[in-house]
Amino acid sequence: MDDFLDKLPQMDLMRSEKMTLVQLIIPVESAHRCVTYLGELGLLQFRDLNADKSPFQRTFANQVKRCGEMSRKLRFFKDQIDKAGLRCSPRHELEPDIELGDLERQLADHEHEVLEMNSNSEKLRQTYNELLEFKIVLQKANGFLVSSSAHATGDETELHEGTYSNNGFIETSSLLEQEMRPEPLNQSGLRFISGIINKDKLLRFERMLFRATRGNMLFNQTPSDEEIMDPSTSEMVEKIVFVVFFSGEQARTKILKICEAFGANCYPVPEDTTKQRQLTREVLSRLSDLEATLDAGTRHRNDALNAVGYRLTKWMTTVRREKAVYDTLNMLNFDVTKKCLVGEGWCPTFAKTQIHEVLQRATFDSNSQVGVIFHVMQAVESPPTYFRTNKLTNAFQEIIDAYGVARYQEANPAVYSVVTYPFLFAVMFGDWGHGLCLLLGALYLLARERKLSSQKLGSFMEMLFGGRYVILLMALFSIYCGLIYNEFFSVPFHIFGGSAYKCRDTTCSDAYTVGLVKYRDPYPFGVDPSWRGSRSELPYLNSLKMKMSILLGIAQMNLGLILSFFNARFFGSSLDIRYQFIPQMIFLNSLFGYLSLLIIIKWCTGSQADLYHVMIYMFLSPTEELGENELFWGQRPLQILLLLMAFIAVPWMLFPKPFALRKIHMERFQGRTYGVLGTSEVDLDVEPGSARGHQEEEFNFSEIFVHQLIHSIEFVLGSVSNTASYLRLWALSLAHSELSTVFYEKVLLLAWGYDNILIRLIGLVVFAFATAFILLMMETLSAFLHALRLHWVEFMGKFFHGDGYKFKPFSFALISDDDA
């Protein structure tokens, strides 16, 4: 048996890559180029040898600070280009690589130039806005002044005979009386202030004026005919022109302060019409000159931004890479001579040759007289986990890693999940009509893969695009399971030939209630379409899907246990094989494996035995005769044997392993045998997170015994609960089928029964929306999450530790835009 097992492959595709801890001793003059070349290769994960130092205490802190400042300037240029609405595509011609110092000087010059142009443009825009507001106020306020003057000269009243002779009365008389006086405004003491204010502040502004002057003012307003740009936000703002008539110096002071508080701009408007026209002409002339100046300044600024924009992408990439290089150099230590940098890191074993070649090339290119020393170190801590994936397997690996990163060289569940995950999803979602809809969505994402991969996507779209191959496989398996269930939007079709059932006689008109008779061989593939609508449809489908769920669940849990055997064999833990794997296989298959066997025998023989009765009385009365529930000869003694094996397996899981570990520990530390400390027999039972260098700590037998007790109880109870958990395959499949049937019969067919095109159209729209949002979105998400739980808990719980950490190499390809 051992020879046979030794000949089995080592499951290289199922396990993480073998990792090696290496040390680099790099001369200072070639350090930068070596790290740059290693970043381009992307197969070495550096360890931080300066973890006890703050970022400001590290060797290359100033270079990192300079790169951060250049990143800020580049982000400033990008914001300015976006704000100006420019589209600067990078030039494809080859440009020579620029040195970091030269780039720093160029960026400083460009920033100074852009800031100066922005300052000048802002001042000109402010002046332009003031002149534009002045022009609008002159045009609008003139109407108020002309109408007021005309009203005053055309009105002859008795109040003219002595009302305004007293100067004291001027302050207390009403504004209406003062306005009616035929004398000019400035002779009567009536004054005015004209200006312009934002529309959203107008109501509060008017209320404040009324309260401050105690009602002794006349407020006129009119909307401006054009919007004005706000220099601070570059947004067009709607404003209102106002003219406030008042009397007295004190009121004037209050009104001016309120205008300043509300941000209202006041402009002097002469009462003389001739002066108004002359002033308007001057304002229009200056506006024309300023427009030309602003246009010229904008063109010059856009030219400067375009010159930067053509090289912006390349510069941002250069700065990101330089910052990453110096961040990595900060992880290295100087040796005692201060002439070499010492670094350590993890790399895949297959990459040692590539790394060595890259370091030799870096030494040659930097004209260094001393080469880089590259040698392998003895590892004490557990190496990182690294799986080589492609576009198809990467999404499934991410699903597994969301639960936990595999321990170093532990069996990888993602390999099996590529098939089992979409298949279990399809068991719950099976409808080949809905599967075709998912397939169209997946094909759309695949057809636009190249374009979408280069775009900035939203969070939801990015998630869909990342899982495009998962959606593709889920769609294909859904079509397959839908063909087995024979459901196309809940409608069965005779795809693989005619039904095996027919009416009881030729006059049968109510076949669905009277019943059908079988007259030929079974339907060749999937469920016979004649079951649809029959009296026994629901009991038949319930029985089929429930038993199928149990079979699939037991098969996947057995796969998990088999993987635990290969894990124990790979790590050399014979204790786990003898005292965990074997009793767990016996316990699970003595009970639920036997149930699966009964299901298959019942399907093959067509027996009417009650499996519920068989399994219940297997525990309650194992010696009783089975009677009509007997499926095969020798079933009763077999059940007694299996029950005894299940009872024996429980203490087999619980007691031997803790005592065996105690015996191994005592033999090692009492000198009876001499073994290498830290072998897998003990290592596998050490709690995650403990270092291998501390294996000489005191052996705590009670802690290990309690841990084994919890593990045994968890497996025994979990065997029952996990088997029951797989019944969700049956429940969700039935719910999906019934929901689809309700929408088809109670919405689409009901609407189609009316001889009205509008009702039919409404029914079709409601059916389409219900299918899209409930069956294709909510049900897809529900089946996805339930399949996720079955893999994380029921399948991976049998063998997966998930206490490793990811291999994160220093690679320029992995640097995101946010790292700049």
Automatic annotation (TrEMBL):
Compartments annotated for it: namely: Membrane
- One Pfam family in the UniProt entry: V_ATPase_I
What InterPro entries does this protein's entry cite?
A: V-ATPase_116kDa_su (IPR002490), V-type_ATPase_116kDa_su_euka (IPR026028)
Protein's GO biological process: vacuolar acidification
Which GO molecular function annotations are given, in alphabetical order?
A: ATPase binding; proton-transporting ATPase activity, rotational mechanism
What is the predominant subcellular site recorded for this chain?
A: membrane
State the coiled-coil residue ranges: 100-127
Topology term for the membrane: Multi-pass membrane protein
GO cellular component annotations of the record: vacuolar proton-transporting V-type ATPase, V0 domain
On whether Transmembrane is a keyword of this UniProt record, the answer is: yes
UniProt KW Transmembrane helix keyword: yes
Transmembrane residue ranges: 423-446, 467-485, 548-566, 586-603, 638-655, 757-778
Keywords associated with the record: Coiled coil, Hydrogen ion transport, Ion transport, Membrane, Transmembrane, Transmembrane helix, Transport
Highest taxon above the source species: Eukaryota
The protein's matches in PANTHER family, at most eight in alphabetical order, are given as:
V-TYPE PROTON ATPASE SUBUNIT A1, VACUOLAR PROTON ATPASES
Say which family it is in. Answer: Belongs to the V-ATPase 116 kDa subunit family.
Role of this protein: Essential component of the vacuolar proton pump (V-ATPase), a multimeric enzyme that catalyzes the translocation of protons across the membranes. Required for assembly and activity of the V-ATPase.
The name of this protein is V-type proton ATPase subunit a
**Organism in which the protein naturally occurs:** Brassica carinata (Ethiopian mustard)
Highest classification ranks of the organism: Eukaryota, Viridiplantae, Streptophyta, Embryophyta, Tracheophyta
